[in-house]
Amino acid sequence: MQRILALLIITITLSPAASLAQTRKRSTVKAPRAAATPKPSEIQRQGATRVAEQIKILTKFIYLLGGVAKGFEAADDAARRNEASNTIIDQTRQGKATVRASIQSVRENLDKLEIDFRATPELQRYYIKLAGVAAGAANAEDLAAANQFDKAGRALLDVVNHLTDVLLEMR
Question: Is the pTM of this model over 0.85?
Answer without folding.
Answer: no
